[in-house]
Amino acid sequence: MMHRRTRRIAKKADLTKEVMVRMGRILDNLNAGATIVSRRMTTSFTISTNGAGSVPIGTLCSSGSVNGYTDFAAMQGLYAAYRVKGFRVRIWPVLPFIVAGVAPPPALIAVATFTSGLSTSTYPNVIDSAESRFFTGFRPATFACDWKDLKDAQLWTPNNAAVPSTENFGLYYIQAPSGPVSQLSTVYFQVVVEADVEWITSG
Predict the structure, then answer these.
(1) What are phi and psi of 2, to 5 degrees?
(2) In this structure, are residues 22 and 133 in contact, taking their beta carbons and an 8 Å threshold?
(3) What is the CATH number of the domain that holds 42?
């Protein structure tokens, strides 16, 4: 007994459904074989006064500079791309007390978060933010920031490139104006930065 197949003209909805199913399968399996690992990466530096005895505006941490951190080159050869999830910054004063013949350390420095490479360059604008934080030359301090609510910062960056400025985030500092002048061109702080960096293979 022969069965007769029923034929009908394909409609736009049928073609749309076919594309949706096909693309769904492709995207669901994309990078299915990829491996993702998290790695703690570090760097360290000092903060000094300038020739006028003050601390100029500077950066504590930046996702755009993580490609210069310790062990980045080793990880670069194993993975295809990376992204920076957050930072912890620890600061220790070098001269946390008054030393005879040496001007006192900076009394107050404000810290603020920057995103997409954008930051303010004035102390009043920094302290106007409810998220502003502070450290002084008399005691250690710790700060942290992450990519929460920063969708652009969660994009992957190729292993041979720095995070673009439009996806960059981190912390910067600026000294309170009109304070006592510190010793000229002198190291006053040691800084250690730890970054939580996520790496992915090509799949």
Answers:
(1) -95, 130
(2) no
(3) 2.60.120.950
